[in-house]
Amino acid sequence: MKYNKCWLNFNPINNYGDKEFLTEIIVCTGNKENNSLIIDNAIKELTEALNKMLNIKVDQRILASEDEAATVKSGIILKLTDDSTLKEEGFSIKQIGEAVYIEAKTDKGLLYGSFDLIRRIAQGQSIRGLNITENPKNNFRMLNHWDNMDGSIERGYSGNSFFFENDEIILDERIVDYARLIASVGINATVINNVNVHEAATELITDRYLGKLRTMADIFAGYGIKLYLSANFAAPIELGGLPVSDPLDKDVEEWWKNCIKKVYEYIPHFGGFLIKADSEGRPGPFTYGRTHAEGANLLARILKPYGGILIWRCFVYNCQQDWRDYKTDRARAAYDNFIGLDGEFDDNVILQIKNGPMDFQVREPVSPLFGGLKNTNMILEVQAAQEYTGHQKDVCYLIPMWKEVLDFETYAKKDGSTVADIVSGRAYNQVNCGMAAVSNTGNDYNWTGNDLAASNLYGFGRLAWNTELSSEQIAMEWIKQTFPHEDKVINTVHEILMKSWPVYEKYTSPLGIGWMVNPNNHYGPNVDGYEYDRWGTYHRADRDGMGVDRTVKNGTGYAGQYNEPLASMYENIETCPEELLLFFHYVRYDYKLKTGKTLIQHIYDTHFEGVEEVEKMIEGWKELKGLIPDDVHDRVSARFNMQLENAIEWRDRVNTYFYRKSGVKDEKGRKIF
Ligand code: GCV
């Protein structure tokens, strides 16, 4: 076996009490010939899950007529309905008498309902008296893969790509299992290639690859997933031989028209494009003096008749900017570049905004763009790939971080304008919006490098479906579907996951300062390592204090990009949330935090604590030996060893650095190297 099935392992559930409802799957949507691939897949999943988990060999029956359906009294009944409380992808599950009814408006809804039922049984939950209705909170629930055509993955920590190898597309059983995995948590769209579109990837939109992509898109469609591609803004030059890729040039428009027509001839259900432009060396409309709206709208207009969507990233900044000017601030860039374009994007354009203003640091404030744009579709982009959060060597369960972002009140409206309200479309009555995660997958046996990192992939899907689920609940669901149902296992893994982000933060970056990592690979400490700062350091530490002054009064002015009362809250050192203190302020080492500790003592203490807590997590994990499969235990133990080494290195380097800068001794007299 080249890979495991993660949370779709369908481990046996002993002594499950509700078997009597589950002996037959009955589909009431018409005759067999009319059944869609999606329904066939739903039946397949239910059949396999019940067989493996409960040892039930389920029968299947397809009913041809409504009359016949009315006679059914027992089994799992999949039924299309026109229930107006359900959205297109929603479903209800009701257990009545001897039957469990899964009802939905569409085949996709039936698939999601089937996975929901499986999830409940896999957790050992009773389905007796079940009566639930579920509608997804977000319409777009996407993965972004940063996979390159040579098989490498940018910021990939789980092996190589399972989509590409040697400039070819891979079509094998793993693609089906990938689709099953992500559909099971409600993900409905995926971009399979890197936003940095290099060489062969530019050609994905040509005859060379479109045939195979069609096959892949069909597999995905069977699980309700749309295929998207990252496109190269300079494709008209690189593929078409045109002298420019100016979005207002007629030949460029004509070129894209022909290209997109061809894409849809091959793949009528193609989702659309994701574009990274004018950022980190990627081409874009700035070259021609055009705006990002002009760039995005050109493609959106052409995609529109096909039902296509154009997703345009707001991760636009000038990595060559002169940091010596104190007012220069990369954190300002996304807002500065896009706020003036609010309302100028076509309705099938979605702006994709990273959760924070910088770049997926351990701790950042929420991007002010969410509270700023009012007439623009938005997708929240988070990073499941642990680029700055431990490379999937260190455990870092990211759902609590994403929850904080979703729950953040932007004050864009008087009420109901949290990030979750905005990206779900509730705040401004929008349809084209949602959430995307940079995927943490690769062709490793366990998909995510660290077995525990699968919780982030699982959790992203669940959270994108229902932003109101708690981090605790998501962790619990994942654990129960992944590990044996032993209290000790469940409690220990739950505790490890829930502590992991705060622990990682403790031994790495204090109070929102970020970027003290080794340049380029972004793992391990390097206090002065920020690669785009050629003239100084990111943290701006001197002998008196550290932190970046982002106030309007004296600093970069970034704090002023927020709506009130947030702008004033961040501006004022007394009201600025402490976990972000150094993000917004230059703070003296002797500044007293709310705990009564000085800033420097806080840095020392948290770094010592971080290492101690990793040691405790390892102790807990050791005790699971024999209670979970050996291979899983060994793999995670090996990762924990790397994490401990990393944490010690962080502790020592950070503490030593700031001890040398400040000259202030540790109050507790611990050894600082
Ligand atoms: C795909 C960061 C990463 C890059 C990534 C970029 C982006 O800068 O380090 O690897 O490029 O973000 O999100 O486009």
Describe this structure in words.
This protein is α/β, with parallel strands linked by helices. The chain has helices at residues 37-54, 66-70, 107-122, 173-184, 199-202, 207-221, 235-238, 250-266, 292-303, 333-338, 369-372, 399-407, 419-423, 454-465, 471-482, 487-507, 566-571, 581-584, 599-622, 630-662, and strands spanning 24-27, 59-62, 74-80, 91-96, 98-104, 131-134, 140-144, 164-165, 168-169, 189-191, 226-230, 272-275, 309-313, 349-354, 378-383, 434-438, 545-546, 587-588. The strands form four sheets. The chain has an eight-stranded parallel beta barrel. α1 runs parallel beside α3 (107-122) and α16 (487-507) packs antiparallel against α19 (599-622). The two termini are 46 Å apart. The model has no long low-confidence stretch (mean pLDDT 95). The structure holds 4-O-methyl-alpha-D-glucopyranuronic acid (GCV). 4-O-methyl-alpha-D-glucopyranuronic acid (GCV) binds next to loops. The site of 4-O-methyl-alpha-D-glucopyranuronic acid (GCV) has 11 residues, from loops.
Structure keywords:
673 residues; alpha/beta; Chitobiase, domain 2; TIM Barrel; eight-stranded parallel beta barrel; six-stranded mixed beta sheet; 20 helices; 18 strands; globular; binds 4-O-methyl-alpha-D-glucopyranuronic acid; Xylan alpha-1,2-glucuronidase; carbohydrate metabolism
Concise overview:
By secondary structure, this protein is of the alpha/beta class. Helix content is 36%, strand content 12%.
Q: SSE layout and pairings?
A:
Elements: E1 24-27, H1 37-54, E2 59-62, H2 66-70, E3 74-80, E4 91-96, E5 98-104, H3 107-122, E6 131-134, E7 140-144, E8 164-165, E9 168-169, H4 173-184, E10 189-191, H5 199-202, H6 207-221, E11 226-230, H7 235-238, H8 250-266, E12 272-275, H9 292-303, E13 309-313, H10 333-338, E14 349-354, H11 369-372, E15 378-383, H12 399-407, H13 419-423, E16 434-438, H14 454-465, H15 471-482, H16 487-507, E17 545-546, H17 566-571, H18 581-584, E18 587-588, H19 599-622, H20 630-662
Parallel strand pairs: 1-2, 1-3, 3-5, 7-10, 7-16, 10-11, 11-12, 12-13, 13-14, 14-15, 15-16
Antiparallel strand pairs: 4-5, 4-6, 8-9, 17-18
The protein binds 4-O-methyl-alpha-D-glucopyranuronic acid (GCV).
